[in-house]
Amino acid sequence: MSGPKQRVLVVDDEPAVRKIAERVLQRISIEVVTANDGEQALAQLAEHPDIGLILLDATLPDMHADRLLDLMRARGFTTPVLLSSGFGEDCLPGSEEFPNVRGFLPKPYSVATLSERVQKLLEPT
After folding, report:
1. Residue 21: which CATH number?
2. Residue 49 resides in a domain
């Protein structure tokens, strides 16, 4: 990627997952901000309006992904979201209900898969 750094918000309640995702994305010149629950994610979105993508764990301690997506919509955030879960994608909110959901990344994910998916979603359309 050329030009200014892209910024990704990694939202996961597992510190190890956040740290790994942060390191992987920083290696490919992506700036990373993190949150460990939905409320922190909303605060980070308000603080960093230039976030280009959210890597969102579907099950957080304070709310499920659909609740966070509802709150984001209510507050005017349309940031693209890549959902992630170790439980499968069958019960996750989809792009029909939330147009900013751009895909699903099953856990555990590989370094290569994470890098590839995030870079593709950050590409200008």
Report:
1. 3.40.50.2300
2. yes
C-alpha distances in Å from residue 69, one per residue of 39, 80, 94: 12, 10, 10
CA distance 30 to 7: 6
Residues 10-51 have pLDDT tens digits of: 999 999 999 999 999 999 999 999 999 999 999 999 999 999
Q: Cα(100)–Cα(112) distance, rounded to whole angstroms? A: 23
* Total domains, the chain: 1
Token pair of 96 as six digits: 């029909």
Residues in Cβ contact with 87 at an 8 Å cutoff, skipping those fewer than 6 apart: 58, 59
What does the alpha-carbon distance between residue 26 and residue 42 come to, in Å, rounded to a whole number? Answer: 22
* Segments in 1-125 forming alpha helices (H): 15-27, 38-47, 65-74, 111-122
**Which strand ranges, in their side-by-side order, compose the sheet holding 101-106?**
30-35, 6-11, 53-57, 81-85, 101-106
- pTM tops 0.90: yes
